[in-house]
Amino acid sequence: MYQNILVPLDGSRNAEVALKEAIELGKKFAAELFIASIVNEQQFVAYGSMAAPAQFYSDMRDRSQQILNEAEADAKAAGLKVTTILANGMPKRAIAEELPEKYDIDLIVMGKSGVDALSRIMLGSTTSYVVRHSMTKVLVVNDEADDTEDNTTEVE
Q1: CATH of the domain at 108
Q2: Nearest-5° angle of CA 1, CA 26, CA 151?
Q3: 138 C-beta neighbours (distance < 10 Å), count
Q4: Contact, 127 vs 112, CB < 8 A?
Q5: Percentage of the chain with pLDDT > 90?
Q6: Which of 67, 93, 116, 155 has the least CB density, counted as fewest CB within 10 Å?
Q7: What number of H helices and E strands is found in the chain?
Q8: Would you give the end-to-end CA distance of the chain in angstroms?
């Protein structure tokens, strides 16, 4: 049913739970996982980091690469084929439009919210944007600690 599953990661607990769900789906469908971390260029402006942009950018890329390395190890340990993607840009557009088209993604699995509350307030929820704009199926996974009974919502 699914051959190419995209999992965007930002280091949040919800993203970790989404990765676990994607790994299980990948095993069930013998799918390849495309694990992505997008360095958000908008954060340079949002956090007023123009004083030391090179160091801030380098730190963001290093953290994103660390997230990818850990996720890749988990997926490979589960026996899955994995492609990691470290990209620059606007995460919303990259996840909803650019990466699915480039990698022929047929399912996006993501957490309902990420680590960046300030950006969410200022710029809007990435998950909400992806659900509204993606032409690919989207599975939104709640943190297991959530009080809701149903921890997943699939939107087409």
Answers
A1: 3.40.50.620
A2: 90
A3: 23
A4: yes
A5: 59
A6: 155
A7: 7, 6
A8: 14
By the 8 A CB rule, do 75 and 23 touch? yes
Largest CA distance in the chain: 48
Please tell me the total count of domains within the chain: 1
pLDDT band at 124 (very low <50, low <70, confident <90, very high): low
60-108 confidence digits (pLDDT tens): 899 999 999 999 999 999 999 999 999 999 999 999 999 999 999 999 9
What is the arrangement of strands in the sheet containing 137-141, beginning at the earlier edge strand?
82-89, 32-40, 4-8, 107-111, 137-141, 152-155
> Domain containing 144: what range?
4-155
CB 143 within 8 A of CB 17: yes
Q: Are 15 and 110 in contact (CB under 8 A)?
A: yes
